[in-house]
Description:
Elements: E1 3-11, E2 21-26, E3 29-36, H1 41-55, H2 63-84, E4 92-93, E5 95-101, E6 104-110, E7 114-119, E8 122-125, H3 132-138, H4 144-148, E9 155-156, E10 169-174, E11 180-184, H5 186-189, H6 194-203, H7 208-221, E12 228-235, H8 261-268, E13 276-277, H9 293-322
Helix pairs in contact: 1-2, 6-7
Amino acid sequence: MPVGAYAVASDTGRRRRRNEDNYVVAPPLFAVADGMGGAQAGEVASQLAASAVEGGDSDGLQGVDRIDALIQEANRRIFDRASTDPSASGMGTTMTVALVEGMTVAIGHVGDSRAYVVRDEQMEQLTEDHSLVNELLKSGRLSEEEAQIHPQRSVITRAVGTDPDVDVDGFTIEAEDGDVFLICSDGLTDMVEDEEILEVVHQHRDDLDKAVRALVSAANRGGGEDNITAVAFRISEEAQPNLEDTVAMPALTGDEDEPDEQTREYADADVGSDTMVVRPGELTGGEPEPRSEPHARRARLVLIAVVVLLIVAAVIVWAVVAR
């Protein structure tokens, strides 16, 4: 098996109470699932997906065919659960899966989690986001800069488990010795620019555990607005795999920044996933201007202050006229 090393880090982030991400690290199979849905349904969806991928029977299939069969099984399990459990209605998950076979890496993908490959000093995004923002980008209705701050970044156009069948993007990559593959949820990519992700992975390519921990720390420093999961593995033609168990990180300790008061305020709220699914034909053009919750709160306070001042002024004018 040409997987020379691998590591995983998963963190709740700074503004969520629960981690609705799940992952599979079962060389030569790797996957990340980012759940969505009300209450705890997102966590249930991603768990069902991860279990289906890790324990699924692929009937001797290989490569892209095997991955497609595993994701279809995940879709069936989630859709059946959502159809019979009212508390899980509408739940779903993203799913990005990698399977290493020799020096070939097969990828299966649904949603807006991502797969990258770092080769030498360059990084390439292998998957295409199934998201509203990406559709608007491709149509020329958004610039790259606008996409980064768009208020509907969490709206995806394809997910596992929301319909009886799912369309899976599947393809293969011919790997080279030393390639590092990264699979991650959008809690990383929404907070950290690709250039910084490349810098971190390149700096720690010989210690992937440090790499994924550093990526999670960077996402939290960037705001930590969502759950963060990063799975990395390195290809080696003369692999001596590090098969020591790697564990999820419920919280990071060390050199990461302490959350400020505003961050703690969000963390105290029982906030779940804000990801939702729309069909491509439902995309609309009237996008609101981005506004964060703190800005909205300040706007309401200013409005109240203006109204109070107007009332006071009216009372004073009335008193003067009454004389």
